[in-house]
Specification:
This protein has helices spanning 35-43, 48-74, 83-89, 95-106, 115-131, 140-157, 173-199, 204-218, 222-232, 245-258. By secondary structure, the chain is mainly α.
Length: 260
C-alpha cells in the first residue's frame, strides 16, 4: 500500500491501490426503438406480413370511416318528423329516437305509468353502484337487494297501494332487461359453482355430465335459448298447460349464465 498524506490524499506520483469510481455514460437507445415509435415499429411494421396487414388496415379504415361519419353525423337528420326529409338528406335518420324514446326505454308499458319503471331502474342502478364499493360488502347488502327487488316488483306489477295493475306481457325495454339480468346473475351463481365443482369431480359420470352441459350451453347463442324458451318450449307442453313467458325467459337466462 502507498502512504497517504494527513489529509487523506495520495502523495504526488504515488499510485492508488483503490480505483476511483468513474461515471460510465451508456449510449441512449435509438428513438425509433423506444416509446410509442418503438411499439409501432415492433408491432405494426416488425415484419413484411405485419407491414402488409397494417397498410391494408389503414386503407380499409380510410375507405370505411369517412363515409360512415358522413352518413351518421354530417348528412344525418337530427330533428323533424317528416320521413321525406330523412330520405332526401341521404344520411342517418335520428329523429325517430326523439319520437320513440319512450317506447325504446319502456316498451308497451302504459304511457301514463312510465314513472314506475323509471323509479325501478333508478333503484337498480343506484344499488348496483353502491354494491361496487367494498365498504358495502356486508351481510345487510343482501337485505338491501331483497328490498329493492320487492319494491321494483310492486312498482312494475302494481295492483296495490293504489297502483294500476300491469301484466308482465306489457313489460319491455330497459327495465325488463335489468330485471332479467339481475335475477339471472344472482340465481345462476350457486348453480355455476356446483357445475364448476362437478367439472373437477373424481366421479366420471358427474364430471362428464357437467362438462357436456357447460360446453353445449356455451356453444349456443343466448338469442337461441330465448327463442326456444319463448316459442318452442310451449309446443312440447300438454294441452291446457301454460307457463308464463317471462318466467320461461328468466329460466333460460339462468341456465345460460350458469354455464359461464
Amino acid at each position: 500500500m502507498t502512504a497517504r498524506e494527513p489529509n487523506g490524499r495520495h502523495p504526488p506520483g504515488a499510485a492508488s491501490d483503490i480505483e476511483e469510481p468513474t461515471d460510465t455514460v451508456l449510449p441512449r437507445p435509438p428513438l425509433a426503438s423506444i416509446g410509442m415509435l418503438g411499439w409501432i415499429r415492433h408491432n405494426l411494421f416488425g415484419s413484411i406480413p405485419n407491414t402488409i396487414l397494417t397498410v391494408l388496415a389503414i386503407w380499409l379504415l380510410w375507405e370505411v370511416v369517412p363515409p360512415l361519419l358522413k352518413w351518421g353525423f354530417i348528412n344525418a337528420t337530427w330533428s323533424g318528423a317528416d320521413p321525406k326529409a330523412c330520405r332526401q338528406a341521404g344520411g342517418a335518420c335520428w329523429t325517430f329516437i326523439g319520437e320513440k324514446h319512450r317506447f325504446i326505454l319502456f316498451g308497451l308499458y302504459p304511457y301514463g305509468e312510465h314513472w314506475r319503471p323509471l323509479v325501478a331502474m333508478a333503484l337498480f342502478i343506484a344499488t348496483l353502484a353502491a354494491s361496487c364499493d367494498r365498504r358495502m360488502w356486508q351481510w345487510w347488502i343482501f337485505v338491501v337487494w331483497a328490498a329493492v327487488f320487492a319494491v321494483a316488483g310492486v312498482l312494475m306489477w302494481g295492483g296495490i297501494l293504489g297502483l294500476t295493475y300491469v301484466e308482465n306481457e306489457r313489460w319491455g325495454g330497459l327495465p325488463l332487461t335489468l330485471i332479467l339480468a339481475m335475477i339471472g346473475i344472482a340465481a345462476s351463481f350457486p348453480i355455476s359453482i356446483l357445475l364448476a365443482l362437478g367439472r373437477r369431480s373424481n366421479l366420471p359420470a358427474i364430471r362428464a355430465l357437467c362438462v357436456v352441459y357447460i360446453e353445449i350451453v356455451r356453444g349456443v347463442p343466448l338469442i337461441s335459448v330465448l327463442f326456444m324458451a319463448s316459442v318452442m318450449f310451449p309446443l312440447f307442453l300438454p294441452e291446457g298447460v301454460t307457463i308464463d313467458k317471462l318466467l320461461r325467459a328468466q329460466v333460460g337466462i339462468i341456465m345460460f349464465t350458469a354455464a359461464y
